[in-house]
């Protein structure tokens, strides 16, 4: 390569590196998300949208086989499941991970974001995809949605697994407003200590971006949390009516939803098994996936036969009249 050409290439590389470095400093979470999405696409995980009445819902999909639908927690998104999706897809499942209404890349209308509403969203998604019988997985608030769906639509669920699930009453030992809207760097650190027993120092520029994101999500998370704390959709006294097999995964050191909740679920759900993961917190499926994933695969093996298969047309569609009501932002 001629010196002049080498110099031009080097200059272009340095400029690109500078742009990436600047972008990472000012929007680190966005750059990390773009990277994760690029890796996901390379692994065969597709990003899709569907219209459910007036609202657009985002979801991820991968694999072929029996349908497995995953539901994230408060403040989360479908992408929280990305570390698990490729392995699940390789094990004869067609995996769907949805962004609940108000979260991720789904629409954010002016609604209450209750568990009942999210259950309706889940049902409409399944109807649109022509999924009559499925396996379900839920994490934290998503576990609450999954268990409520298993109660209300038992004929549509083959098996369910939940991780560090909300849904039964307990008395939090922390300030619950941290979950809806952390406002300071100290709040971010306190929230991290609730989520993991092994909190790590977070660089100030990432904390700044986390707070920026929290401000954007505050209205949705606040309404969802208010609805949960009001207790309208609590599952207390209802769990014995669940008739499908349920795997209950829990981080032994979970400081957000205490292990006693998992133990109580195990006692009350007839066909359930509880797996406590030592050294793990509320993020057990992620931070301890080397142990959580084998338990999930063991529980879901073999994939069910005779279940309905999705309509592979995919993409967007319309269900017509919609019980979800609200003003779109």
The number of distinct structural domains comes to 2
What would the average pLDDT be, to the nearest integer? 87
Number of helices: 11
Q: Please state the structural category.
A: alpha/beta
If strands are numbered along the chain, what order do they take across the biggest sheet? Answer: 1-2-4-3-6-7-8-9
Let me know the CATH homologous superfamily of the largest domain: Alpha/Beta hydrolase fold, catalytic domain
Q: Give the CA-based shape.
A: globular
The name of the CATH architecture of the largest domain is 3-Layer(aba) Sandwich
Please tally the β strands and state the result: 10
Residue windows where pLDDT falls under 50 for at least 5 positions? 9-26, 306-329
Instruction: Return the CATH class of the largest domain.
Output: Alpha Beta
CATH topology of the largest domain: Rossmann fold
- Sheet having the most strands: 8 strands, mixed
């Amino acid at each position: 390569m001629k010196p002049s050409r080498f110099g031009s290439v080097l200059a272009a590389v340095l400029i690109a590196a500078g742009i990436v470095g600047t972008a990472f400093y000012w929007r680190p979470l966005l750059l990390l998300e773009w990277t994760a999405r690029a890796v996901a696409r390379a692994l065969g995980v597709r990003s899709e949208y569907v219209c459910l009445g007036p609202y657009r819902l985002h979801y991820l999909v991968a694999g072929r086989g029996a349908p497995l639908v995953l539901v994230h927690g408060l403040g989360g998104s479908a992408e929280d499941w990305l570390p698990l999706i490729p392995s699940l897809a390789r094990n004869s499942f067609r995996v769907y991970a949805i962004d609940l209404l108000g979260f991720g890349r789904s629409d954010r209308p002016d609604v209450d974001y209750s568990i009942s509403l999210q259950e309706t969203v889940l049902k409409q998604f399944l109807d649109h995809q022509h999924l009559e019988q499925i396996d379900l997985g839920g994490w934290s608030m998503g576990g609450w949605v999954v268990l409520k769906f298993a109660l209300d639509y038992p004929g549509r669920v083959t098996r369910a697994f939940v991780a560090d699930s909300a849904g039964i009453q307990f008395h939090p030992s922390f300030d619950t407003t941290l979950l809806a809207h952390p406002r300071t760097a100290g709040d971010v650190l306190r929230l991290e200590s609730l989520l993991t027993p092994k909190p790590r120092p977070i660089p100030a520029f990432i904390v700044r971006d986390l707070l920026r994101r929290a401000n954007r999500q505050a209205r949705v998370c606040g309404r969802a949390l208010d609805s949960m704390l009001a207790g309208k959709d609590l599952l207390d006294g209802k769990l014995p009516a669940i008739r499908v097999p349920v795997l209950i995964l829990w981080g032994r050191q979970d400081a957000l939803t205490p292990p006693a909740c998992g133990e109580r679920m195990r006692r009350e759900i007839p066909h359930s098994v509880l797996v406590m993961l030592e050294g793990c917190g509320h993020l057990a499926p992620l931070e301890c996936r080397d142990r959580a994933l084998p338990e999930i695969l063991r529980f879901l093996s073999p994939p069910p036969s005779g279940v309905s298969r999705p309509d592979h047309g995919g993409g967007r569609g319309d269900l017509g009249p919609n019980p979800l009501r609200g003003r779109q932002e």
